[in-house]
Amino acid sequence: MAIHVVLKNPINPSIWIVLTALIVPVFAILEQHDTKTRRVTRVSNSPGVKVISAFTTIGGTWSFQSHPMRVVLLVAMSLFASGCSLPKWAKNHFKVGPEYCHPPCAAVADNWIDSDDPRVLSQPPDYLDWWSVFQDPELNGLVETAYQQNLTLREAGMRVMQARAQRAMVAGNLFPQTQQLSGSYAREQISVLQQPLLAPLPEFRRSFDAWSLAGNLSWELDVWGRFRRAIESADASLEASVREYDAILVCLIAEVVTAYVDIRTFEERLQYARQNVQIQERSFKLAKTRAEEGKTGNISLHLSQSNLDATKASIPSLEIGLRQANNRLCTLLGMQTIDLGQSIGQGTGIPTAPAEVAVGIPAELLRRRPDVRAAERQVAAQSAQIGVAISDLYPGIAVTGEISVQAEDFSDLFSSLSQGGSIGPGFRWNVLNYGRIKNNVRLQEARLRELIATYQQTVLTANQEVEDALVAFLRTQEQVRSLADSAQATERALELELLNFKEGETDFTGVFVLQGDLVRKQDQLAVAQGDVVTSLISVYKSLGGGWQIRCPGFHPHGINEFEAEEIVSPTGGEEETLPEIMTDEAN
Q: Does residue 345 fall inside a structural domain?
């Protein structure tokens, strides 16, 4: 990867000293030929001299007329001495530094590994509101509430606003950088010991007032594109912050849906466990009755008791998982931790995932994934910073001016005789910097290469995440089918074995084994059913879907049944819609 820098061989500072020694006499000749000095003395009717002031005026008058040859010579010498490549500088719209182009992307496959599977559709995915495929109104409401109230998302929104304000500050440097007004009043007294010759004068007054009002301006011209490159960097940083906001929104939606699915999965596992407790309690009573009748030994009673206690012991851990999933969802919703059972209902079952999923092609990830787009924008921002660093190798050309009024009496402050001022061009050049500027350029170039590698790694990681989620989604479907068949067969076998035990044809050993096996397989089935849904969530998350919810005109499917509290601005003002920070196309 090559980074082209405009300045190949900047001029040596010692050569600039020689050039300065040559150009200064030229300016001195022009100044001597064209400058006149006028002393203006204002004497009042009072017994002393009020103010004595002197002006050195340019162009024979103090109306701030400047000789155009000075500006021409200054710019010409700056261009010549800087050693800059004028054609390339002009081609880059009068900006030094490299022109940005899209960084080289890491290699991605033409198709997904499982693209031959009929359940994997190559058509563009409908992932704008992917959570609606579960057809769960409660889930739709939770997503909308999290979008409005989540505090991590609000933090990201504040970072976007910071980047926007930073961009506006940088853009302001295109205009005069210094514009100040100043004013003062002083009561002054002259020392007679230091000015003994003034004391005999009949109109001399030792004390007098001094009023002044002044305004100054300094404007560094963007000759080398320093400020425009800084604006390019700020623009790219702002876009990167918006993409980072989108990436957080994608993760937020996926985490909300995952927490909801975890709640439903734990509810399903608890339901299986409690059903098995009821079955095993009936088996324990049967074993106890047969033992009391002397038809079986105490071993059947102990085996039955063991199964029942083991199943009961699994319930508290499942209740802990359910409560923790509930608490996690409350945090994602940006609200206090409460029991959400009344809001979202209980026992509605694990959401059903469709068997097929549209994922498009791998190359589309570069356009879809917000984190990939954010990494690319960070590369663009850093590319412009190289131009900012290179501009320090060239002289900064500025125009400065000042106008002021000074008088002893306030009534004379705005008279024509009280006016004074100056205006003219100048330059500033960092010389004898001992390699600091050049090494700063090298630093920015190395930082650019680092961000390009980060961008490429982000692309590879995105591709991996889709593949991981896709294979999990496909294989867990097969696991669910096998576990469902196995659990159903075990349940039928348990019914037959219980019947045989009741009739005295077999001992309790078979019932003991089948009951423990049924508990495990039903629990595994519920976990696998939840894994199918969570793996589909991971597919949509890895595809970068869901951030379009912030775009104007977006209408989510379903009904929002969750009551969200009013969100007040952190500054105490009116309500703010922080998520809608920047408009964007819902691609």
A: yes
Per residue in 523-560, pLDDT (tens digit) is 999 999 999 999 999 999 999 988 888 886 654 443 23
Burial class, 88, CB count within 10 angstroms (exposed 0-12 / middle 13-18 / buried 19+)? middle
Give the mean model confidence (pLDDT) for residues 325-342: 93
230's tokens? 């800084």
Average pLDDT, the chain: 79
Question: Which tokens belong to 17?
Answer: 């000293």
Strand partners, 180: 216
Angle at 145 between CA 140 and CA 146, to 5 degrees: 100
Residue 129: name the closest of 141, 117, 115 by CA: 141
Buried b (16+ CB within 10 A) or exposed e, 245-262: bbbbbbbbbbbbbbbbbb
- Taking a C-beta distance cutoff of 8 angstroms, is the pair 383, 448 a contact? yes
Phi (first) and psi of residue 569, to 5 degrees: -60, 140
pLDDT digits (tens, 9 = 90+) for 481-530: 999 999 999 999 998 988 888 887 778 888 889 989 999 999 999 999 99
Angle between helix axes 509-543 and 436-502 (nearest 10 degrees) is: 150
Structural domain range at position 486: 245-356+462-543
DSSP 110: S
Residue 344 lies in a domain: yes
Q: Which residues are within 8 A (CB) of 51 and not within 5 positions of it... i.e. 6 or more apart? A: 42, 208, 210, 406, 407, 408
Residue with tokens 């563009």: 124
Q: What is the pLDDT of residue 554?
A: 56
Indicate the pLDDT class of residue 578, thresholds 50, 70 and 90: very low
Expressed in percent and rounded to 5, the helix, strand and coil fractions of the chain are 55, 10, 30
Lowest mean pLDDT among 271-285, 475-489, 567-581: 567-581
CA–CA separation, 183 vs 217, rounded Å? 15
Tokens of 423: 């205006």
Residue 268 to residue 256: CA distance in whole angstroms: 19
Distance CA(401)–CA(215), nearest Å, equals: 8
Looking up residue 488, the CATH number of its domain turns out to be 1.20.1600.10
Q: Considering only 28-32, 177-181, 417-421, 482-486, which range has the smallest mean pLDDT?
A: 28-32
pTM of the model: 0.77
* Residue from 340, 345, 280, 287 nearest 315 by CA: 280
Share of the chain above pLDDT 90, in %: 44
Does residue 417 have a pLDDT over 70? Answer: yes
5 assigned to some structural domain: no
Give the chain's domain count. Answer: 1
DSSP string, 428-489: E-----TTHHHHHHHHHHHHHHHHHHHHHHHHHHHHHHHHHHHHHHHHHHHHHHHHHHHHHH
Q: Which residues pair with 54 in a beta bridge?
A: 39
pLDDT band of residue 209 (cuts 50, 70, 90) is confident
Contact 97, 85 (CB under 8 A): no
Contact 150, 566 (CB under 8 A): no
CA dist., res. 173 & res. 257, Å (int)? 46
Which CA distances in Å does 352 have to 62, 84, 266, 395, 520? 85, 66, 15, 67, 22
pLDDT for the residue 501 = 84
Residue 372 lies in a domain: no
For residues 474 and 265, give the distance between their C-alpha atoms in angstroms, rounded to a whole number: 19
